[in-house]
Input
Amino acid sequence: MNDKEQPQPYAELNALAWRKSTFSGDQGACVEAAPLPDGRIAVRNSNHPDAGAVFFTVVEMDAWIKGVKAGEFDDLIDE
Output
């Protein structure tokens, strides 16, 4: 694991400029994301911020967003 892959301490994560999805609901589905100083993007559950975050590079997040917009993950949810 290199320095870019090291987990951020909770205090550092808490100080980030988190943005909650407007699609987050009142049923516990609260997702938020924040840019990190090194260019990565952190994603976490805003209902449990102390549980940590998952980190993505810009390239990884771009691929994820494009896949979501294209419906590639629609089969993972029941509606």
Remarks:
- Residues 7-21+29-76 form one domain.
- The radius of gyration is 14 Å.
- The mean pLDDT is 83.
- Residues 67 and 73 are 7 Å apart (CA to CA).
